[in-house]
Amino acid sequence: MGKLIALLVILSLSALITGERIVNCYWGTWANYRSGNGKFDVSNIDANLCTHLSYSFFGINDNGEIQSLDTWLDYDLGFINQAIGLKSQNHNLKVLAVVGGWNEGSAKYSSMAGDWNKRQNFINSALNLLRNHGFDGLDLDWEYPNQRGGKWEDRSNFVTLLREIKEAFAPYGYELGIAVGAGESIASSSYEIANIAQQVNFINVMTYDFAMASDGQTGFNAPQWAIENSINYWLNQGAPANKLVLGIGLYGRTFQLSDPSQNWPGAPCRGVGGAGPFTGDGGYLGYNEICLNNWQTVFDNNNAAPYAFSGDQWVSFDNVLSVQWKMDFALSKNLAGAMVWSIETDDFRGHCGESYPLLKTINRKLRW
Known about the structure:
By secondary structure, the protein is of the alpha/beta class. It is built from twelve helices and 15 strands. The chain has helices spanning 2-19, 71-76, 79-85, 107-113, 116-133, 154-169, 184-190, 193-197, 224-236, 287-290, 320-332, 357-366; strands at residues 22-28, 52-60, 66-68, 94-100, 137-141, 175-181, 202-206, 244-249, 251-257, 269-271, 284-286, 296-300, 305-310, 313-316, 337-341. Strands 1-2-4-5-6-7-8-15 form an eight-stranded parallel β-barrel, surrounded by six helices. Strands 9, 10, 11, 12, 13 and 14 form a six-stranded antiparallel β-sheet that branches. Keywords: Glycosidase, Hydrolase, Signal. Pfam families: Glyco_hydro_18 (PF00704).
């Protein structure tokens, strides 16, 4: 009986640990403007598939204050309030406000982080945003300190900024997360990793975009070896495993082949692939677009990732199998969980099978 009780305790603890893993769903709210089956709004979100919903994006002004980037969508259409309302469907859901993103650049954030007054403007506006709307925390996605118009002092200033935010958030219990560049080349230039890790609840590691058409050849968006190298680098630099959240891209990077008969990884390309019917951007296809294409698909075991091609079009992406491999790695390293960029490009309507196949795969591995 004693052995049985001990086994039940172990199983219960295992379930508890598994249940606490993060599944952070970034949501690009501009998907509301997509046409047809690509249109995505709050009604399309299954709140039970996420522990965190990251509402993207807010920006900042030249004084460092947080501002809406789409007031009509955020306020007139009521997207913020509707997002907060999802907590009625999942009482444990945390809804975070995400500030930054690629389009915001780095210069304004560099200026803000290096100026005490602007930092206070940022922090006070963050507190107002969270309090006034019922957000549970903030995700700061500065892409990237000391790059894209930044300066070397950004590295230490970023630590200072995060420490001051943490102190301001403490009385209210707000969570603080960051999204960071994954690979060593970006991370070593942008972050004092051990120091920033002390200031935040979790770190969303953007383990994707490892190959682009600008490289001049086809390549994998998120090969397993690159993900493992990136996470191991963050761990070795002092980031605790229980704060690292592994990024999964629910999209693919596309390439136009220079010669359609050369359609393997590393083949020459002449530029980005054609735009998809939903996302509408060259070089990028959502998984909900890729799965509808009747392209020849190959799973590359060396990279633990699929690619597909048709004519001169080539795409690298993640599917259920490659996501399973990535989750097994996250579990083997005892990481905090996984995040997705972004929820609206999964097959959320289930046109290729079950709805949200990639996000559900993550949940089956980490939470269910």
